[in-house]
From TrEMBL:
Classification of source organism: Bacteria, Pseudomonadati, Nitrospinota/Tectimicrobiota group, Candidatus Tectimicrobiota, Candidatus Entotheonellia
InterPro entries: Hex-like_dom2 (IPR029018)
Domain of life (superkingdom): Bacteria
Gene3D superfamilies noted in UniProt: Chitobiase/beta-hexosaminidase domain 2-like (3.30.379.10)
Protein name, per record: Alpha glucuronidase N-terminal domain-containing protein
Organism: Candidatus Entotheonella gemina
Alphabetical keyword list: Hydrolase
GO molecular function: hydrolase activity
One BP term from GO: carbohydrate metabolic process
Amino acid sequence: MWWGGIVFLALFWDGMIAGHAAVQQPEADIDLRTYQSLYLAADADESERRMGRILQKEFESLYGIRLRLRTLPSQPLDGVIILGRSASIASGLITVSEFDAAKWDGFIIKATPRHIVIAGYGAQGTIYGVYAFLKKIGLRFYP
C-alpha cells in the first residue's frame, strides 16, 4: 500500500542510512506523493541511468506517479529524488567524507523534507541503494 512508503520515509526524515547503519528518528513524515522528479548528473554512468529508469518504473507502480528524469541543475528544486554519486556531491547533500565511510559497495540514502538522495560509493553501491530504498517503501521482488 502507498501509505507504507510514507510511514517508512518518516524513518529517514533528516536522517541518513549508510549501508546498514542506524537511522535517526524523524520529527515528521515525508509524503512521497509530493515527489515529481528524479535528478541524475549530466555525466551519470549507464548503471545510474538504468537505476533511474527502474526507480521511475517502480515508484509509478507503487504511487501512480511517473517521476520525470532530469539532469541535475545547479540548485535542485524541492520535492525531488537525487540519484548517484556525482549528482549527490554536486547538490551538496552528501560529502566525499560520507562516501568514504560507506566504502566500495556501500550506499547512502539521505532524506530531508525537501530531497531524497540515493547514492553509492561506486556503481554497485548505487544499485544496492536503489533496491534498499524500493524495498523499504514497500516494493516486494517476489511473486
